[in-house]
Amino acid sequence: MLRAAAMKAERDDRFDGYTVAYDRDEIQFPVWILMLLGAALLYVSLAKASFILLLLSGLIGCFAFYSFPLLETGKTRLAANPDGLFIEGLGLLAWRAVAAIDVAEVIVRGSVYTEAEISLSEPLTIALLDDDRKMAPHRRFMRKPFYLRSGPKVRVPLDIFDRAPDDIINSLTRIWVHNRGLAVSGSKKPVQGGPA
Question: Do residues 32 and 61 touch, judged by C-beta distance below 8 A?
Fold first, then answer.
């Protein structure tokens, strides 16, 4: 246990470059409300001996458990340094394996969300310098700051981080171009908001 904590602290300290964490503002409040609601329903279900309320409190508790990483606001979720691009729960992607960093806008129920779409030129197993996909069993069911697409592509939602999406995309693109030695026009799609 102590060794795992030391490895985690070392992993968080190894990124002295550009780092991004979850935002501290409004995303924590719904998680706390879910935790309190789940605890209250658990208490009522045990007091009333109601199986339906017990199931409902378990469902709410599971969703609160899934969303728990949103409460860990100081932890690095996305980082870039000369070695590569770190995405928590995925690992360290080598810059040589990144083919493009593009902006993807996703519209959900009328709201526009900004995501970074990272296209890889190699399969994911080869592109990873440090594989973080093997994590503690209880962390496997928690929210991750990415999702995988076919192609191979990695999508990272940017609206939940503590920096503006344009700032994140511009910084990642600048670091990628600097460490890869390619011009921005080398990507498959135009990078919106990238360096001129």
Answer: no
d(CA 57, CA 138): 19
Rounded CA gap, 7 and 94, in Å?
Answer: 21
**Positive or negative torsion for Cα 117, 121, 123, 125:** negative
Structural domain count, the chain: 2
In angstroms, the CA 126 to CA 117 distance is: 18
Residue span of the structural domain in which 145 resides = 78-186
Q: What is the pLDDT of residue 55?
A: 92
pTM over 0.70, yes/no: no
Enter the tokens of residue 78: 């996305």
Q: Which among 14, 46, 71 is the end of a domain?
A: 71
* Local mean pLDDT, 10-residue blocks, the chain (196 residues): 39 60 66 86 89 90 82 77 84 86 86 87 82 72 79 84 84 84 42 40
- Please tell me the predicted confidence (pLDDT) of residue 36: 87
How far are the Cα atoms of 66, 128, 131, 170, 196 from residue 93, in angstroms, in the given order? 25, 5, 9, 18, 25
If asked whether residues 86 and 169 sit together in one domain, one would say yes
Secondary structure (3-state) at 67: coil
